[in-house]
Amino acid sequence: MREALSPNKARKLRGRCGGGKSIQVAKGVTLPTPTGGCNCKGACIDPRICACAQLNGSDFPYVSKDGGRLIEAKAVVFECGPKCGCGPGCVNRTSQHGLKYRLEVFRTPKKGWAVRSWDFIPSGAPICEYTGKLMRTNDLDNVSGNEFIFEIDCLQTMKGLDGRERRPGVLPLPTSSHQEGFDDKKTESSAEYCIDAGTTGGVARFINHSCEPNLFVQCVLSSHHDIKLARILLFAADNIPPLQELTYDYGYVLDSVTHADGKIKVMPCYCGAKECRKREKRIALELKVILIGLGNISAFVPSNIVVCDLL
Asked: Of 13, 69, 74, 250, which has the maximum CB count within 10 A?
């Protein structure tokens, strides 16, 4: 059972785009050394001379309008990082600028906790980052009490299997050194790393699935270029009016997951979409999500988020 939360327990905190809880690194996991960046000064303006823009197809993936918006979905977005000469206000650091919208975690009749915004959100705007503990997928057997596990699998993003609409102009992942540690056959079978939000995490863990979502998942690389350890961001796929529930497609496929006894797991969908697939089974697409329940929600309330007991 998901714990009920009364309005007097609502609270607001401060934090970044991950919703107040940044990525924690588990023992045995070593983050890559920061990759060399561009030589731009102040802000990246000219894509012809910006090294980071070259990785994005010789153009910037964002426009500065509305505080930064992603022009189109890509296999991977390369942002400016700690080794770049530009400052924190650079448009190519859009996903690093923190929460921009007033988000609310609320309770629904059938889907448990959900998330919506009090503000209008324009298409292409970054919503939040999926955060938690970064760990090796093989170590999950030694972890008790897992609730939300996301497997980082950008290979499926590149193959267009991530459950979101692929728009014209989507660029393939650059070749050579920008695929650090990439093994196509190995990655195809399973993701090496995952994000465990069972004990720490942000608002993204409360966002529900929909067969007709208004968000999409985007892999982002900023401090390094190892796609196995990409940051996972949620962006607005459409203009989203205030108080509309935020959702993304988890990437379900029918009859693909079974219990230990071999019986198929039946997971009813309550998204309410016109083209709802109704009965779904979860597999690893861009992210693999394992939902085992939710304990004390107050331990996961992210920054700038209001939690209420409504609906």
From this structure: 250
